Amino acid sequence: MSELKKRAEGARDKNAVLGPDIDLEEYTKGPSDYAPVPSISDVPESYHDGFLNIGVDVSEKDRSGSFVQVDSSVLCSTTAQEGLEVLGITDAINKYDWLEDYLWRLVSVDTDKYTSRAELELSGGYFIRAKKGVKSVYPLQACMYIGEDHTFQNVHNIIIAEEGSELHIITGCATGKHIQNSIHIGVSEFYVKKNAEISFTMIHNWAPEVNVRPRSAMLIEGGGVFINNYICMSPVKSLQTYPTAYCEGKNSTAVFNSIVYATDDSNIDVGSKVVLSGEGSKTEIISRMIAKDSSSVTARGHISGTVSGVKGHLECNGLLLSQNARIHAIPELNAAAEDVELSHEAAVGKVAEKEIQYLMARGLSSDEATALIVRGFLNVEIKGLPDHLRREIQRTIKTSQDSFM
Amino acid sequence: MLLIEDLTVEVGNKRVIEGLSLHIPEKETHLLFGPNGSGKTSLIMAIIGAPSYKVIKGRIIFKDVDVTDLPTNERVKLGMGVAFQMPPVIRGVRLKDVLRIHTESLSKGGVMDQMNKMGLSAQFLDRDINYGFSGGEIKRSELLQLMFQKPEFTMFDEPDSGVDIENMEVVGKALGELLEGRSGLVITHMGYILKYIKATKAHVLIDRSIRCSSDPQAIFKQIMECGYGRCVECLS
Fold first, then answer.
1. ipTM of the complex
2. What is the reported pTM?
């Protein structure tokens, strides 16, 4: 048994530090024998509904490529631009010996039982790479779909932007309407090489009884930029994720924007952690959390500055739309060097009465005023993205809002 | 247009208006004077129907409709409007989102004409409402919104405070335009604005109620010369 497998075995039953514990023995591996198709337009129509709210476009208009995985089967992986690569992770490991060096380098295999299972019972994932100097004209799209009940989907994704390249990815996760209880474990490791850029927009649209445990980390080299946009607008049983970006390179940048609209009795614990250890590195973490019904949201944020001259800002705003919902904001700043500039602002509360009153004095009803304030609250200015991608994200937020509010 | 009968209003457990009566006939503009904390803003908030302003006693009749228990937006539908003194910042809600409540299309020339008239540049449309607005910009943005709302009866809470001399004319003219042929109630401390509006009557609010009503120029002159101290003396 390899060293890696041994460590994974050792963590098989290791509880995670955060999030409610999940008994993984309840689930079996989702089917891995679905027939692959040549392109996303050939994916069976029964899945198309699930693609609607997660930014996945079957027509591939304004897309540089597609990856679709249903349960444990990779249905397609295609690219439309020279220099961009999209492969199933297993195919990629077989193709590239060097990929070994990238697997489990940023996320430890023995972090908890979820990372352990991703190694021991892998059910897929993708490998996406932009070769040196290649800039993706349109975003690549990736979709993870759970179609079978009581199954696990344990994926491992590797994303690499080689030196001077630019990679934009929209990834959507969804489940079939009938899914009662399933679990998605996703390990994602991002490598932003020198002067490269990755923007990664993830849209979650799970079902009310699905558990989700992403485990992500990013390494950003000199002059590199990593932008993460996370959008979750639909109910989920429990979701816990706390990605860590390591800004090791000189003047590297990490940006996290998170938008969460929690409903029903969803238990959502999301955060972003950034370690600024590269000279002149900087970060901005912005989150907007809305909690409705009897949902519970924990919004974490952590910035560590370990060399002088780094800058970080953390902004966490929460809006409570019901008496029974709760939002717990936990912003943390850790300055471990001189001349480190870290700041945070956090505000959590109900919609301010005077704001509703103001809009009512302009003629809106109380409900209309609240809706406009909520829309405004979610209207996060996402910087550093190509225009069409920014519009796409705004459109997705709007579509999900229309369907869930 | 507006008839207030023996109105008593509380905020929390604090009485802010007590036994106040006021009548503003159609096409008349009245002024409201009074020292700080006397209840002027509270009166406007009660007339527009802010939920935290509880009517304990009395009635508010607007265009022959008893609006005492109507929500704010219903009163607005009937034709009320208000320019707030200190409107709240609403992050993410832009000025154009609020203008859209009353105007279908913002791309038409009309909006830009009005903005130019109010001395607001086009970029204001995309600003979060009241966020980082200067005192004068807040006033002009409030008036701009009312230009599109076109209320039959408009209340102005100190439209001239915090406005520099250069912008006073802009604000004054806008006020004059909004009140032309319509009705209004204007809270003011300063005389400049009187040049632009044809007020028919002024009221002095002291200690939660209207204590004196008379000719606007006469009351203003009196206050300028002797302050509200004289009013109190005169009343006691």
1. 0.94
2. 0.86
